[in-house]
Structures are given as C-alpha cells and as structure tokens.
Amino acid sequence: MRFTLRRGFGVATATMTLMLPLVWAGPADAGSSDPDIAALARTISAPGVEKHLRKLQEIANANGGTRAAGTPGHAASRDYVAAQLKKAGYKVTLQSFPFDFFQEKSAAALQRISPDPKVYTPTPPDNGSLGDFATMTYSGSGDVTAPLQKVDLVLPPPPTPGSTSGCEASDFAGFTPGNIALIQRGTCTFQAKAANAQAAGASGVIIFNEGQPGRTETNRGTLGDSSVTIPVVSASFAVGQELAAPASSVVRLRTDTISEKRTTQNVIADSRWGDPNKVVQLGAHLDSVVPGPGINDNGSGSAAILEVASKIGFLPTKNKLRFSFWSAEELGLLGSEHYVATLSAADKARTKLYLNFDMVASPNYALKIYDGDDSDATGAPAGPPGSDEIEELFEKYFDTLRQGHVGTDFDGRSDYGPFIEAGIPAGGLFTGAEGIKTPAEQALFGGTAGVAYDSCYHQSCDTIANINGKALALNTGAIATAALVYAFSRDLPGPDTRPATAARTTAPQAHVHAHDASAS
C-alpha cells in the first residue's frame, strides 16, 4: 500500500494503492478462473469512503446533529445506505424491531437542600465532561425534593467490591414511600436496584460508586430498558459518602429525559451471487449516540463496508456476501442481538464467519485486531474455532505492509458478541475508543501516549474532523482484502461442519458498547 498524504480531511487523508502479494494464498485456495484479488482491492479507496462519511455528516447536520436509532437522522442514514446497496445490485432487507429509546433533553440537577446546602455538578447530555453525577440511561423524568433514605450502605467500603445495597426487596423494609433512595454500587445490576427502589415507593434514586480503587468516579450506567419511570442518577463515591454522612438530609433530584418504546431497522444486504450455504457476513453499526453525529463511531466502519460492498456487488463470488448495518448498537447491541436471535439453526450453520468493524479511523488510533485465539491471554477466551484464522489473515495483511498492529480482546462491547455466542467464527478491526494510548502504541502508530484514542468519543465533536485518514485507508484496505479473500475462498475459517448453536464456555463481559454497563 502506498500513501500519498494530503491535508484537509481529518488528521491525514490517504490515497490508497493496494498491493497484496502475500495475502491471497494462491493455488491452495484459488482456481485459475478466480479474479485478481489485489487488482480488485485497488478499486476500493479512502476517497470513496470519505464520500459516504460526508453524506452521513450532512444527514446529522440536517437532523439536529444526531443519527441515533429511533431518530430521523438514523432513518435518513438507513435510507441512504439502502439506496447505495440497491444500486450496487444487492437484495436489501430492512429488518424492523422494537427497542427502548432514550434521550436526555437537558442537564440534570442534584442538590442537598439541608443540612449545609450544596449544588453538585452534572454530567452534561453531550458527555463533554464527567460531573459529580450523571443521569442513568433509561432514567425516568421528574423533579422531586424529598428526604434522603440510605439503603444497606457499607461505609467505609471493604477492600473487595461486594455491596448488595438495593439488590433485594428486603433491603427496602421500612422504606418510607416518597423518599429518595441512596444506594451503593455493588453486585447486582443498576436496573435491579432502581426497580426495587421504585417498587418500594421511592420518588428518585441515587446510586453512588462503591469506593474501591477504580470504583470511585461517576459511573455512566444504564438501567437496560424503560421500565423504571422515576429519576435515577449515578454519582461518584465522594458524593455518595458526603450525602450519607448526615443522619438525615433533604435532597432535590431532577432529570429531563425521554424513555420510551420505538421501532428501528437493521439494513441487511445479500449479494446475488455465491453459495447460499456459505455466507460471509460483514457488519458495522450505523447508529450514533444521541449527543453527536457519530462519524468515527461508527460512521467510519459503516462507510468502509458500504464502499467495499458498492465496489464488489457485481462480482460472481463463490460464497454469498452479506453486509449488515446494525441499529441500536449504542443501547446494547440491540440490532445484532435481534438479528442473531431470529436466525434458525440452519441459518446460523450457513453463516460461516462474521467480520465486525466498529470505529476504524480514531484520531489517535492504534491498529487493533480482535484476538481470535486468545494469544494475548487477556479478558475473554478465544472466539469460536476459525476466529484464529480470521485474526491471522488481518495480521498477514498488515505484516505484508510492514505495518505494526496489536491485539484487542473480544470484550463483548460490539456486534460480534451475539455471533460469538452463537458459535460463529468472528473477527475484525478496531482503532480505539475512550481507552488511553500506551507508549508502546505511540511507538508503533505515532500519535500521543497518555491520551484517549478518540477524545470525541460519544460527544458532539465526533464529526468529519474527527477522522484519521491514514487509519481509515489502512483499515479500508484490510476490510476489502478480507471480504474478497473470503468471498472466493474454497476453505473458509473454522471446521467444515460445526453445531449451529455452539457456545463459548465462558460468557463475555456485559455487552453494552462503550462505558454504559448494565451490570453494576
């Protein structure tokens, strides 16, 4: 790959010429009638991806700065993608499903009225900073002033996390209806705590962090769905400890939210070629968070696979290609979960592999390949058999370019999660989100150690200016290569026969994309 860098698109924009002499394995996989994979890959370039990104930015600009699921911005993004795919010859299906929509309309308020009045700083709806407290995703809306009642708190906290505050209905024995519940983070979900408080008659809930190292800041949590209708906020340990100190106090709690059922759609595009019993599936989530346009997260992955799909739709491939654009990923992988849940056992068996591309152009990027064989020995176990082969293909691609790369864990935070749970080999690429770049990664990729990979993650500044063109070009080349190699491969990753519902022996972590974990 040769890069000619020019100014003007994000950090750096690259014009790609793809040269893949070692990636396509040759006679072991290919026949004499197969197309020239490298020549085809050269037709897929970063400028084509940029065109789609600019369109997604225009859509966000015209729709209040967002492309979140359940909003007109997402509907317009869906229609644009579907039209491009139809033009390229795909059979396009819009898969509708219900989901719980959430939006924080204005900043929340938390103040101690007595004793010693104090106003606490909210985390703003645009996530631009982390405050003393934050509105939980799916919190109800309301403005209440009431006595604060402590629920089974453990202060000071023990060295090891384990609080059960609010986890059992019995914790609320003697709770005075109308009071605001003060609950400590611990071993059960935020939803369980809030639901128990609501059932006991609480007018609002404050769930503060537990207090051990790494569990002190405000946790931006989620209640999982719209079943809790009272105001619920998370708070830092310091705030919770301070509120718990007086024997009695009165607190005002205000949230301004929309939490309701809506309908959205996945976009599924099938090529008109290839063996329907050998489906090669690529996916990226199309929705943004409500506070921003989501151009890196995840316009970048969506635009990259859309450009690949658009350029190869005419090819009579050996295996069937399927391109997936998921909705409501930002609320917990809801689109991909719905899709996989609706597959029959036979359909799962036909899906030979899934490739996921979520954030492939982070401004302070690292080139991360999902660790299919758990060679990094970090976090979740290896993916289903065949995931190691997918990882190897991406490694070989970057090695051919003498381009450094690192592994990243299958931590369950993106749309590969439901496919892995169904026993389908998976892999993909990632350039980092709110995590911090290491000195070793700075040495490999440039950029700045000690700074987030994407400082605009889940914020309004995730615009077209938030794209790193070099990362986008490198990853677009890798995506094109993988799509073409697997489209024509006679020997796809994984065993030739496998149970359609094979599951991992160890479940992945909570699968919410980003920091909003439903588990407490």
Instruction: Return the structural class.
Output: alpha/beta
Spans of at least 5 consecutive residues whose pLDDT stays below 50 are: 1-28, 499-518
C-alpha-based Rg, rounded: 24 Å
Number of E-state strands: 16
Overall outline: elongated
Number of helices: 12
Distance N to C terminus: 45 Å
For the biggest sheet, the summary is: 14 strands, mixed
Mean pLDDT: 90
Strand content: 15-25%
Q: Helicity range of the residues? A: 25-40%
Order of helices and strands: EEHHHEEEEEHEEHEEHEHHEEHEHEHH
Please give the structural blueprint.
Blueprint: E1 2-6, E2 13-17, H1 37-41, H2 46-61, H3 72-87, E3 91-114, E4 118-120, E5 133-135, E6 142-150, E7 180-184, H4 190-199, E8 204-208, E9 232-235, H5 237-244, E10 250-270, E11 275-285, H6 295-312, E12 319-326, H7 334-341, H8 345-350, E13 351-357, E14 368-370, H9 387-400, E15 406-408, H10 416-421, E16 426-430, H11 439-445, H12 469-488
